[in-house]
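From the shared-data thread, chain only:
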Amino acid sequence: MSRVKMPLVLSMIASSALVSQSGCFWMTSQGPNLGPLAIPIPVPVYLQKSREDKFWNHERYGRAPILGPLRPGGPCEAMDEPSDDEVMRALEKARPVQGNWPFLYEIQRNNVRITKCKVSDYIDPPRHYPLVGPAQQHHAHYKCTVYFQEVKRIGWPVPHTLVDEDCREVVYIDHNHLHMVGEINPGCDSEY
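Structure, as tokens:
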């Protein structure tokens, strides 16, 4: 090898050895080693937000609770109306605002006011549900009207802003839950 190439080859070998032993690369020999999985991979914000929203909706609003039986003379109306968060998430699903192009096309909802009106509240006759047993399904339907000011900012080709002062959207939300029927035995009372 020529005298010019020899220091170049030695410096490349030394630099690769230093990089692999610095602890920031996956070829390190100290501690736990994840291999190529130790290199972080960026996740787009849209995918992360969609997974978080899906989990939030499942945890908060995706399950139907099983309540005790209805007592004679007791309340038989649904007590809980939809929360403002539930209404805004349903509106976002029906008419999305997020996922805009920053500085090119943005939509905002300002001065939001929500009115909730119960449309119907009824209970189905008893029937047998798998994994639950005999129960009655309680339905409550709500009409939620959302009043807001919509601001659209368009940045290309000519920057301008469109403001709609009187926007109105209607969202229908259903709340369903089960009421047990008959004697409830929550524990195991087996006699030996």
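The mean pLDDT is 84.
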